Structure formats: C-alpha cells, structure tokens
Batch of 2 targets.
Target 1
Amino acid sequence: MKILIVFIFLIHTSCSFLLRTSLTNFNMDPKRTLSHKAKKLIDNSFKNINLSKLQDFHVHSIGVPDKNNNIWISPKLKNFWNIKSYFQYKIYLEASGVRGSKTPVNKQIINRLISLVSQDSRYGKIRVLAFDYNYLLNGKKDLSNSTFYIPNNYVWKLYKKYPKIVIPVMSVHPYKKTALKELIYWGKKGVKMIKWLPNAQNIDPSLKKLNYYYKVLKKYNMSLLTHTGEEQAVDAKHSQYFGNPLLLRRALNLGVNVIMAHFASMGKCKDLDSKTKSKKECFLLAMRLFKNKKYLYNLFADISAVTIFTHVNSNLGVLLDNQKFHHRLVNGSDYPLPAIDALYQTGQLVKLGYLTKKKAKLLDEIYKYNPLLFDFALKRNLTSPKNKKKFLPITFEVPELLR
C-alpha cells in the first residue's frame, strides 16, 4: 500500500515535467532563433498567398475558472482518479503555455497564444472559438455530460482587447431555450461564425426543430463551423453519431454556409443514404457532400487536424489531389493541439510520401520555435504521393462568402 501511495505521488508531482518534456516539447525562450534554411522554408510557405486574406479558422480558447470569466470546467478534468480526463486537461494546459509561474494561468494562456500569432505578422488573424455546455432536447443544461464551458463574452472580450489579431466565434447550443435570442444578439453585433461540436455537445444537426435556428444564421450571414467525423479531444462517447457529415443537409438545404471542421478525417459514420446503413469512412461521406453541385456555394471545410498522426492516411492525398475543391477549403490549426508534440509525426509523413526527409527535419526545427508556424508550414509543404499535388495558395485565403 505504501509503495502504491508513493507511486501515485511521484506521478502526480512529476506530471507537468513529463508532459512538458515529452508531449509539449517546444521552446518558450523569447530569444529563440531559427537556422537560415528553416527561415527560408517559412518564407517560401507564405509565398503566393494574399496575406490580407490569410486567417486561422480554428483556434480554441482554453482557460480556468476565476471570478471574472464564468468559465466552467467539469470536475472530471480535475480529478486525478479520472486518469484519461485528468491527464488530457493537464496536457492542454501545458500545450497552452501554462508553466506554474506566479503569473495567473489565464494570463499565461492568452499571452502564449498572442505571442505565437504575433511572432510572424504574416500569420494573419485567428478565429477564436467559444464553447457552449451540453444540453438535452428539452432545453435543460446537462452538466454531467459537459466537459467545459468557454463563454461567448470571454471570447468577445479577447477580441476587444486584441482586435487586430482575434476574430470572435460564438458557440450557441441550438437546444437551449435562449438560443434564438442569443443568435440574434451576436448577429447584430456583427459576429460571422458559430461553433458546434455535435459529438460532445449532444447536437443532432438534422432535427427539424433547428429550422428556425438555421434561418437566423442565414438572416445574419453567420456561418456554422461544426465538427465532422469522430471526436477524441473532448469526451463524446455518447454522441459520436452526431459527427456524421450527412446530418448537415438540413442546414445546407436552408442555405446556411457550413464549414466541416477537419473534413471528417477520422472515424467511420453510418451511410444514411444506403439501405443497410452500413458504416463507411466519414471522410468519404463528407466528400460525397462536397461533390454535390447543390452545395457548391455554401459547403466548405477546414483542414485543421488533418495532419495529426491518427488522421493521416490515403485520404490526405485525395484532398491534396482534388485541387478543384481547394477554393472551398480554409486553414485551421486547432490550437492548442499543434503544441502537443506527440500528435504530429513528420516521420510518418515521410514514410507515406507526403514529405521529404529534408523538409521534415526543418519542420521539426520550426515546431520547437513556434508550433503555429509549424502547422502552417507543414500543410504548405505536403505533397500527394500519387500526383505530387499540393494545397493551392487559395486554400489559405478566406472565401468571400465566409468573410
């Protein structure tokens, strides 16, 4: 028993060090520098892109509760005995730059994010996402199945403080009783994007009761950025089904601009168009929607997370090769995930033919310098193994309909 207690104590007290050195292995020294070749790779990555249109569409706002922000974190994330959730939360904090200094945690997180974005002015603005609670169909808040809550006002204040860097993206759960009122409020404020994670928030995008919600989005020209495919970063064990891209047809048919986050690059979903409802790769179903001429002007996708090692397969090559769709893709980092070293394996990309060894080595150097620049440069330097195609520069430029 004593040995077990000592073991648990050692794991708990060394957690931050282990995560910092093995999973969030980037250099936070403000005086850090890059080699000439690495700088050149970054410069080449920005070439031929209209920098006034370059944005990061997918940046998560992480924080901890305090008296000023109304952020809520599930007790599961802070309970050591919930091993997976506990360590996941620790990793996110480490990846966000929390280092246990005297500086308040939220200030460390924001300072780190703004510092990374500001390090190279060419990176452009970032769309920072709020995150609503989980709700039941009857409109009741479901705390037991909620992971965290990042208020819309928190993101709005961040935008007000850094208007040249941050674009606010609100999260309004469609089941909540005040949903339409909130949408109208933010629509009148000029907000242009709403974020959902259906798998974790218990949202069925296909429900008829959401028609009014979609009509308000359409009225105020607010786009819907919604997760597609399997979800692993946030607890979604009860609602993975809702990540099926085919469920988005109702919103699309009502004319809403929909952005499929991650292009459904992970997991299998039911083919709702087949008689057997057999499961297929979610990516293939998302591609079916993308090829539908009916949605040519209101269906988009972001390429966040498509280079995470669990997402990488031949479908990445399909995305690279289909350049006729690149004007409907948008860039996204899914920060703070790029700051978790273990999620990105340049060696895997070399082995599969997406990267050369030479570029992989330079990208590894860039990663320790700035994980956001790494994420961007990585995507700009991917080459499809089959046809040697790349993401066109327009992939990284905001489409007019999403401005």
Note: The first helix runs from residue 2 to 22.
Target 2
Amino acid sequence: MNMSDKVLLTGISGWIAKHTAIELLNLDFEVLGTVRNKSLIEQTKHTISKYAPIDKLSFVELDLLKDDGWDKAIKDCKYVMHIASPFPMKVSNDREKLLPVAVDGTLRVLDSSIKNNVEQIIVTSSIVAMFRKPNRSNPYTFGENDWTDENWIEGVSDYFLSKTRAERTAWEFMESKGLKNKLTTINPGGVFGDALDKKGGTSIEYVRQFLKGKFPAAPKFAVLISDVKDVAKSHVACIRNKKVGGRRLIVGKEVKKLVELSQIMAEAMPEYAKKVPKKELPNFMVKLISYIDSSAKTMIPDLGIMMQTDTTYAEDLLGLKFKGAKDCISENAKSVVKLGLV
C-alpha cells in the first residue's frame, strides 16, 4: 500500500467515524483522523485498537470553523471522508445554530480536497436531508431525488436544517466546479448497532433510555433503521467504485416504529423486558413532553406517519447487503448493557 492510499477522516472520535476507521484499517488503508480537540485522541485510539491494527492510524487537531491546517492534512490523501457533523440530543430554538459547523465546515473540507486534487470525497449525510416536507401522504415514500423542505419552519429543526443545507451546499459546490462525480453522500436513517465504547452517539442514548425504563410508552414514530457497521462499510465500499459518483446512497433495511424496536430489545435482553415500553404514547402526550424535553420535538412532524424507501439500489451500487433491524437493535442493546451504560 503506498502513500496515495491514505484517507482523511473528519471527526474520527465520533461513533460512525470510529467504525469507519476500523473498517479502513482492517483493509490496510492509512487513516489520518481529525479531532477538534487533542484530548479526544487517546480514548479514540484506545477504542479503535481493540478492533483493528493502529500502526497506520494518525491524528491531527483541526477545527471545521478555521482554515488553518486543512490543506496540509489533505495534501497527501487520496480519499476524504467527511463524517464530522453536530448531532445534539437537545433541539435549539435557533434553527441556524448548527449551520456554521455543518455548512462552512463541509465547504472548507471540499474546497481543500479539490485544491489538493483528492480522487474521491464521501460525505456522511442523512435521510433527514430527504424526507421532511409538509403535507406528506401516509404512508409516504422518499428516495434519492427527494429533499427536505428547508422553508418548513415548524417541521425542520436545527439538526434537520443543518444536514439538509450542508448536503445541498456540497452538491452545489461540486457541480459549480464540474466535479459532481467526485462526490458521493451516504444517507443513513436512525443509526444503531455496536456502541464500541461509552462515548456513543445520540441514537445510543435513546436505546439506553428505553432500557432504563425512562419511557412509559413509545412515541408513534417510525424510522429507517441503519446498522452502524453497514454505514461504515458503505463509506469504504465507495472507494475506487466507479458506480457511486454523484449519487446519494440511502443505507438501511427496514422501517420500524419505536414500539417495535422496544419489542426487539425485550426479546434480545429478557431481563430488561419489564423496563421497555410496550404501548404507544398518544401524540398529544409527546407534544406536551416536548415542552419539558426538547429532544422529543424532533419527532413531532412525523408522529403517526410511516415512511417507506427502497434501498436495494444502494446495495447494488455498493455490492453490500444491509442488515435487518432485529440484528442491529439486538446488538445495540447488548453492547449498551455490556458497557455498563444502563
């Protein structure tokens, strides 16, 4: 493997990014991971070392809001995976709050990648950039050509807006340079699976709260379930893959309601069966809760409506078969318990 098979991976301390680094290192790629703070390096390195060799892993401290250092870091890299993105548990009243890091950060990474003649850029987006619009049918179907409506103020909160705007900006920027085919986005749904360590993502927090008995009943909310290892493998399967240029790849297998996820957890961990919700919460209750706990706000526009999407096109392009919800959620619940998080 020569120097040219080096991958820059942004936000390597994040959950999806760590899984992606593990996949890359096990395939003998050289990985340069960016962190916004040096203090994140030791723990990240320690976690990754349990699952992959780390002799080809290095780190650099870079800020998505500052130009300094990006060109130097990207200079020797053939591939760039921009995974870093803010995903807070709480919803801010300021819809624009996450835009600087999400949008300016993405542009900074893309601009430097093009200046340094990177071969391929893979950006982690989300189905939240695709499915939120007013007046959807029930059930409703969305796919690769759909975009969340940024102007829907009530329905599109800070996180949804940041993912949508960042991805749109990425495509517009690459098109303006005539390099659309150098870019691929990976668009997972709710990401679940092996937590790896105690620094899990926001979706792990929901599993933890379910297992702790925090919810007496589950909101009537359904989402495409994506296994974190499938998401990581999808990033890696884009490398040198001529078919994925200019595509938005939806990663995930099945849409499940929260109450169904709860049943899967109860089956996987019978000792927690009493704690997890067995019933669905009336929509007005979720709205009431959202006044006290802003993390419930994100679900309100989708309460009671089922999404549908066909991801076989992404499986075909990537040469992968995505994991079903059952395996993914069971693995998530078991890893959360094993790590002592409940």
Note: The chain has eleven helices and 14 strands.
